[in-house]
Design goal:
- By secondary structure, this protein is an alpha+beta fold.
- The protein folds into three domains: 1-140, no CATH class; 147-207, no CATH class; 240-294, first zn-finger domain of poly(adp-ribose) polymerase-1.
- Helix content is 33%, strand content 9%.
- It has helices at 16-26, 37-47, 66-80, 96-105, 155-162, 176-179, 184-210, 284-294, and strands at 35-36, 84-88, 91-94, 244-247, 252-253, 260-261, 266-270, 280-283.
- Helix 1 (16-26) crosses helix 2, helix 1 (16-26) packs across helix 4 (96-105) and helix 2 packs across helix 3 (66-80).
- The longest helix has 27 residues, at 184-210.
- It is extended and about 75 Å long.
- The chain starts with 15 loop residues before the first helix and ends with a helix.
């Protein structure tokens, strides 16, 4: 894997700002202060909300975690922009321009940004625990990237790719088919996102369970489910006779009723007559209602 692999998703460029801020915090806002490359991996991982440094597996040629390789490539990019310098094996610094760029992202960085020592003199930074400030838009997968964002944005390309596979998105590292599939990176990203969403949900439940009991409150009123349209107009938009039955691999909204099709439920996937319109997926019962409209 290279830093351009799976370019529709995550690249080293996504790590540049998180790395720049992390290095500035570790260096206490001082240009020329030496930072160990290894010190940056965990703070950048936390800043970007990834569940672990192994969330994207290992880089094929090296066996190093892919996130670590992206961080290393991101520093190379900062070097090329004149914002960072390599001062030894595994040792990085920010240039004065790099500190200024970091301050443009976070004006509350400590220090003055001026070099504290002569050029080329080693300066060790204090071993402090950094609490990273999340960078807006940097969470590529974790805590929010669901199935609708996991694949290519163009509906025709998604449909074309889906027609060439039979797994329905069930990626596994043990499958020879997955190893040779062009969608493997996107499917892996999707599963990492689902795991992180589950982790966030469980953490919220643990926090709620440990909270002190509160006085009982009146139950919230039960709202009636939204009424289904008498005539949806969907029958004329989709190729109902060519519908493919499937078993849902992830929770997904029904095109007809907008309610969730739960994992493992039987559903129907239908192409649109217009190739620029997204395909539809229906509950089994909702599909029968749409078919009835066509009669």
């Amino acid at each position: 894997m290279t830093d351009t692999a799976d370019s529709t998703r995550l690249t080293a460029k996504d790590f540049e700002k998180p790395l720049l801020l992390t290095m500035a915090e570790l260096a206490q806002g001082v240009a020329g202060a030496e930072v160990s490359a290894e010190q940056t991996y965990e703070p950048v991982r936390v800043r970007m909300n990834f569940p672990s440094v192994d969330a994207f597996g290992a880089n094929g040629p090296t066996g190093i975690p892919q996130i670590v390789k992206w961080i290393q490539w991101a520093f190379r990019n900062l070097q090329n922009q004149g914002l960072g310098q390599r001062v030894g094996r595994g040792a990085w610094t920010l240039t004065p321009e790099g500190v200024l760029a970091a301050r443009a992202l976070n004006a509350n960085l400590p220090g003055t940004g001026s070099p504290a020592v002569a050029q080329g003199t080693k300066m060790t930074t204090p071993q402090t625990t950094v609490t990273p400030t999340p960078v807006a838009g940097s969470a590529i997968v974790a805590l929010g990237r669901g199935y609708e964002d996991a694949y290519h944005s163009d509906p025709y390309i998604r449909r074309l790719a889906f027609s060439k596979v039979t797994c329905g998105g069930g990626w596994t590292s043990r499958s020879d088919k997955c190893k040779a599939c062009g969608l493997a990176g996107s499917c892996r990203n999707l599963q990492a996102g689902l795991v992180s969403q589950l982790a966030a949900k469980l953490a919220a439940e643990d926090k709620a369970a440990s909270a002190p009991p509160t006085s009982p409150t009146a139950p919230a009123p039960v709202l009636a489910a939204p009424a289904k349209p008498a005539v949806s107009g969907l029958a004329a938009k989709y190729k109902l006779k060519a519908a493919d039955p499937l078993k849902a691999r992830v929770d997904t909204p029904c095109t007809f009723c907008q309610q969730t099709i739960t994992v493992g439920s039987r559903a129907f996937w239908v192409e649109a007559n217009d190739p620029t319109v997204d395909c539809a997926i229906f509950h089994e019962g909702c599909f029968e209602q749409v078919k009835a409209e066509a009669k």
